[in-house]
Each structure stands twice: as structure tokens, then as C-alpha cells.
């Protein structure tokens, strides 16, 4: 029997409905709509599509949203000036600077310039530190989306062997932190799992992956995770969004569906959940800033 689908599109729709209800309640109480400012530098087609999707998702739940599109030739000083303006704007609760940035811009300096209270990506070192210490201000969007996709479909993680393939600052590293931590009132998405992080230098990657109850493919390598690397019945999460000759494909080979118990599809799995968690963080930022 083929694997069951972990339907991120359906769960995202449910959770966006929950967020829209909270936005309406805030409006009824006379509060300002949560505001997200998205900044896009240059014309990278994938980044343009991501920002468009985020902008529409914000509109759908009743947020105030502005997309700031700057030319690829923008200087670091110009970008930092825009970030400073957004930091000071009371109508903006969340700031998202779409990565990657053009070569002339020091991305780390830009990440550090975003006010931590408005850092809805959870990329600022202060917020990364709070997450690592188990007292998160925000959860990073893709890792949080992965954990919600699992837990809200009834996949328990406590005590499970979870293998994360990929160690990026955006996905693998923070996801491993969240999975391994003990859940508390301040850290409700923590999962009590036993975590292994695998990467390009891991010896016998297939054997490591076969030890997983839950396998997260976040390497950014099209269809690298093949059926022989998956224990029968395992849960497989595909974080890959690879554009191969104009077609979107994940990190998981289609043959995995014949072996796994559950698989998240691409598209329609983690992608819509990531955007939903961005909405969640922007609402949380508005609650923290405006009350
Ligand atoms: N580029 C790829 N993923 C992300 C993300 O989650 N946030 C931002 N700002 N840029 C990205």
C-alpha cells in the first residue's frame, strides 16, 4: 500500500482560518492589523514567487502587508536604511528580508540589523540564541511547519529516532534543536525526540537514514532520498524545493512512497506550512508589541 500523504496544503488552510479568526477578534477590540513588510532585492524568479505567495497569504488572513522590491544593484547602505525605517514603523510588526541577497550585500549584517522583536524569520542571533536556550521568542518558520505537520497529523515524536539530512541555518540546524528539546510552556513545539543530523560528510548515509522512525530530507539535492534508504513504514518529510528545468521537485524520490508509511508531497507539503508559520509569527509579534 502506498504511503499516506501528509497534506500541508489542507493543514495550512485550517491554521490560516484560525489565524484569520484571531485577526478579526483583534480588529473588534480596536487593535491594529498585524503588519508584515517583505523586502526583495533583485529579480531571482524563485524569490519573487516566494514573496508573492507570502504577500497573498498575508492579505488572505487580514494582515496589512507591503512588499518592498529593490533593484539588484541596491547597496548595503540603502538596504540597511530601509530596514531601519521598517524597524521604526509602528504599523510593521514583522520584517522579512528574502534570502539570498546579491553579492555586494553582507547578508549577516542585514540579519543583525532587523529588530529582534520584528524578526519573524527567527534569523537574528539573539533569537537563534533564545531558541537554542529553550526560551524562543519565535520559532523559525520551516522547522515549525515541519513539527506542526507531524504533530497535527497524529505523528508522535517523543522518544522517536529522527534523522535530519541537512544542517542549514534555516532548516536542519534549528529543526534539530526543536526536535531534541524538552517541551515546556515556553517551548511548546519542542518534541523530546532522539535526533541525528546527517550531512554531506556523513559515512553510510543510507544506513543512518534506515535507522529513522522519522526522516527529514532537507539537503536541497533533487530526489536524493531513495526507497532503499527508508525503513518500511517510516514517516518521511520532504523539505526540498528544487527547480529542475522549470519543474519543482523535492529531495525525496517518488519510489519512497512505496516503502514509507507517511510522506509529505512537494508541492503541497512543507511549503504552505512554512508560510503559515510566518503568519503565526507575525501575529505573535503584533501581540508582543501591541498587546
Ligand atoms: N529564503 C529561503 N527560505 C527563506 C526563508 O524562510 N526566509 C527568508 N527570508 N528567505 C528565505
Automatic annotation (TrEMBL):
GO CC, alphabetical: cytosol
CDD domains (alphabetical): NAD_bind_m-THF_DH_Cyclohyd
GO BP annotations listed: L-histidine biosynthetic process; methionine biosynthetic process; purine nucleotide biosynthetic process; tetrahydrofolate interconversion
Alphabetical list of PROSITE patterns matching this protein: THF_DHG_CYH_1, THF_DHG_CYH_2
Pfam families: THF_DHG_CYH (PF00763), THF_DHG_CYH_C (PF02882)
Listed InterPro entries: Aminoacid_DH-like_N_sf (IPR046346), NAD(P)-bd_dom_sf (IPR036291), THF_DH/CycHdrlase (IPR000672), THF_DH/CycHdrlase_cat_dom (IPR020630), THF_DH/CycHdrlase_CS (IPR020867), THF_DH/CycHdrlase_NAD-bd_dom (IPR020631)
GO molecular function annotation: methenyltetrahydrofolate cyclohydrolase activity; methylenetetrahydrofolate dehydrogenase (NADP+) activity
Catalysed reaction equations from the record: (6R)-5,10-methylene-5,6,7,8-tetrahydrofolate + NADP(+) = (6R)-5,10-methenyltetrahydrofolate + NADPH; (6R)-5,10-methenyltetrahydrofolate + H2O = (6R)-10-formyltetrahydrofolate + H(+)
Record pathway: One-carbon metabolism; tetrahydrofolate interconversion
EC assignment: 1.5.1.5, 3.5.4.9
Domain of life: Bacteria
Keywords: Amino-acid biosynthesis, Histidine biosynthesis, Hydrolase, Methionine biosynthesis, Multifunctional enzyme, NADP, One-carbon metabolism, Oxidoreductase, Purine biosynthesis
Gene3D superfamilies in alphabetical order: Leucine Dehydrogenase, chain A, domain 1 (3.40.50.10860), NAD(P)-binding Rossmann-like Domain (3.40.50.720)
Positions with a binding annotation for NADP(+): 166-168, 241
Domain Tetrahydrofolate dehydrogenase/cyclohydrolase NAD(P)-binding: 140-288
Subunit structure: Homodimer.
Family per record: Belongs to the tetrahydrofolate dehydrogenase/cyclohydrolase family.
Role: Catalyzes the oxidation of 5,10-methylenetetrahydrofolate to 5,10-methenyltetrahydrofolate and then the hydrolysis of 5,10-methenyltetrahydrofolate to 10-formyltetrahydrofolate.
Protein name listed in UniProt: Bifunctional protein FolD
Organism, scientific name: Gemmata obscuriglobus
Amino acid at each position: 500500500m502506498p504511503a499516506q500523504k501528509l497534506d500541508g496544503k489542507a493543514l495550512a488552510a485550517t491554521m490560516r482560518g484560525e489565524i484569520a479568526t484571531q485577526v478579526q477578534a483583534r480588529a473588534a477590540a480596536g487593535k491594529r492589523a498585524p503588519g508584515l513588510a517583505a523586502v526583495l532585492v533583485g529579480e531571482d524568479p524563485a524569490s519573487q514567487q516566494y514573496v508573492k505567495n507570502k504577500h497573498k497569504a498575508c492579505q488572505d488572513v487580514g494582515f496589512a502587508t507591503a512588499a518592498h522590491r529593490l533593484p539588484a544593484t541596491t547597496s548595503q547602505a540603502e538596504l540597511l536604511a530601509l530596514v531601519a525605517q521598517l524597524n521604526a514603523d509602528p504599523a510593521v510588526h514583522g520584517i522579512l528580508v528574502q534570502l539570498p541577497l546579491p553579492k555586494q550585500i553582507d547578508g549577516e549584517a542585514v540579519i543583525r540589523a532587523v529588530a529582534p522583536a520584528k524578526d519573524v524569520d527567527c534569523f537574528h542571533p539573539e533569537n537563534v540564541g533564545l531558541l537554542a536556550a529553550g526560551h524562543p521568542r519565535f520559532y523559525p518558520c520551516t522547522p515549525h511547519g515541519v513539527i506542526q505537520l507531524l504533530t497535527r497529523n497524529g505523528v508522535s515524536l517523543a522518544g522517536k529516532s529522527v534523522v535530519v539530512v541537512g544542517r542549514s541555518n534555516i532548516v536542519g540546524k534549528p529543526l534539530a534543536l526543536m526536535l531534541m528539546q524538552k517541551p515546556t510552556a515556553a517551548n511548546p513545539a519542542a518534541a523530546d525526540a532522539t535526533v541525528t543530523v546527517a550531512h554531506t560528510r556523513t559515512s553510510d548515509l543510507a544506513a543512518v537514514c534506515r535507522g529513522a522512525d522519522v526522516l527529514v530530507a532537507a539537503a536541497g539535492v533533487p530526489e536524493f532520498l531513495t526507497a532503499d534508504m527508508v525503513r518500511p513504514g517510516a514517516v518521511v518529510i520532504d523539505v526540498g524545493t528544487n527547480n529542475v528545468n522549470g519543474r519543482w521537485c523535492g529531495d525525496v524520490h517518488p519510489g519512497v512512497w512505496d516503502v514509507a508509511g507517511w510522506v509529505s508531497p512537494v508541492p503541497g507539503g512543507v511549503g504552505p506550512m512554512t508560510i503559515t508559520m510566518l503568519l503565526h509569527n507575525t501575529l505573535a509579534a503584533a501581540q508582543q508589541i501591541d498587546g
